[in-house]
Every structure is written in structure tokens, then in C-alpha cells.
Amino acid sequence: MTPLHFEPNYHGYIADSFDNVNYCQDCQTHALYEDMHSVNPCPVCGGKIIEKEIVGKWIKPVYCWVFIFGFIPLRKLRKQGYWKTKRRCK
Q1: How far is it, in rounded angstroms, from Cα 50 to Cα 54?
Q2: What are 50-87's pLDDT values in tens digits?
């Protein structure tokens, strides 16, 4: 199972900056600290949330335009968004 990376929904998150990221120790789901608290179980598997060990920067998903019948434009997802993470310096 590939780990899920939840897009930041917290209004105070500044794009292209590093912030606290929590993750589930069982399924490796990553989310912004404000969006996935350690007091609640993991929304995917119900596992324990580990907090404030890593910081991360949200890398936005990549889309491309696909034209149907030559003129109807549709956005197609080329690459999922993800958290680029690193260990917190102590």
C-alpha cells in the first residue's frame, strides 16, 4: 500500500515553505500538523499519529491538458502532490 499524502487544508499554511508534518506509524500517511492531530487516530487505518518529528514542504500536483475530439479541454493529473520531508534538527 502506498502512503497517502493529504494536501494542506489549514488556511495559515504558506505555500513553498517548510512546516510541521505528522505521519501515521502504521500506514505512513502524511499530513500537515493542523490537519492531522496526534490526539485522533489515523483517518486511513486508525493507527497512531507521530507528531513533530519531521518538517515538510507540499509539492503541488502536476496537471496537463488533454483535448477530446480536438477541441474539448480536460485537465488530466500527471503526478500526485506529496510532502517533501526531512527530519527535524534537534
Answers
A1: 9
A2: 988 889 899 999 999 888 887 888 989 999 898 888 88
